[in-house]
Structures are given as C-alpha cells and as structure tokens.
Amino acid sequence: MKLESKRLTFTRYTPVDLPLYLQLVTNARVMEHIAGRALTPEEGRGRFEKALSFNIKDGETGNFMAHIREGGAYIGLAKLTVTGKGEAEVGYALLPEYWGQGYATEIVECFVGLARRLKRFRRLFAIVDPGNPASVRVLEKFGFEPYKEGEIDGLAAVYYELHLKK
Question: Cα–Cα distance between 117 and 160 in angstroms, integer?
Fold first, then answer.
C-alpha cells in the first residue's frame, strides 16, 4: 500500500529497508524522546522485525517509510498500527534535518485521515514524551487529548487519544 500527502509519499517497510530504519533508530537525536538514547544496531533490528510483523498482520495499516515526493529523500517513519479491536496507534519519527518543517503535522493529518477512511477504528492513540512540546502541539492540533500519564521504556510518557465518529 502506498499513501501520499501534499509533500510526502508513504510506503510500507519491507525487509530490504532495514538500512533506512537503522539510520533513524541509531540516531541519538531522533531517539532522545522515544527511547532516551540511540538504539544499537542489534536493538534496531529487533524493533524492525516487530515493525514488519505489524505490516504482515494487516494490509491496510502498519509502519511506513516517509519520503519527500520531490526528489524522494527518506525523512523517517510514519505509522498507524492496530493495537486492539477498533483502536490503533499513530506515530512518527523524523530525521533531525526535517524537524520544524511541518512534516509531523502532515503525517498525523494523513494517518488520521486514513483511519477515518478505513472506518475500522473508534479510537486512535499516541504516546508522547512530555518533554517534547512540538509533538504535543501536533497531536493537539488534530484534537488528541491526554488521558493518562505513565512510563514507556523507563521514560515519562503521556498518552493521547482521539475518538473517531462512526
């Protein structure tokens, strides 16, 4: 499945895309708000296998590579992954050189739109580091609201949700 937004194309990760995925998850700046540190290549491979498993389970959702339409540069990951009956997680991770250019907003808009078109989900959620105000603003722009605080991988996390109308 291939999706497009105004400036981006989204293509599901396949096994040959491991080097691009590792470029993202072994970057300390990218992973600061996700895992607290860069992943080792071995840890990255493990996460990649998990990401691919979502793609195998569901042909309409999953983990996607984000590329700029003009020129095809890889900028990061975008996801809409099914987590339970009627619910899915929205998420993204971008290489630092693409921060602050509206790409995160474009990704969330595209993937919330996909969830609405699929008509399978009553609820979307996202997990954010409270120390990442830019990501909090992106989610709130689309109506996501905080519903719980906790930890994920030992880091503080705020869980946001968006209820979709059927």
Answer: 21
